[in-house]
Amino acid sequence: MEQMTIESAKAFLESKGYYTRNMWHVMDVEGDYTDEEKLEIIDSALTNEGTIEYIFGAISLRLTDED
Predict the structure, then answer these.
(1) Domain ranges of the chain
(2) Entry pTM
(3) Taking the chain, what is the end-to-end CA distance rounded to the nearest angstrom?
């Protein structure tokens, strides 16, 4: 299988409707953690109820601001 570059992978996902302009990497997590632990930390931060509510609230605000 051909090796896909990060940019081509992002372009493919965007062509399918996914938002890819805000990506996180294990290097974004400071501390003495394994890469697996860092991915779990990122996942926890992005999937907690407060973060999700904030994002949907910001999207909703943006939609009502355009009216």
Answers:
(1) 6-65
(2) 0.76
(3) 47
Tokens 């896909």, located at residue: 4
Residue type, 55: I
Helix residue ranges per DSSP H, 1-67: 6-15, 35-47, 49-65
CA distances from residue 17 to 13, 59, 65 in whole angstroms, order as listed: 7, 16, 23
Structure tokens at 50: 């407060």
Written as six digits, the tokens of 7 are 């940019």
pLDDT in tens, the chain (67 residues): 568 899 999 999 999 999 999 999 999 999 999 999 999 999 999 999 999 999 999 999 877 766 5
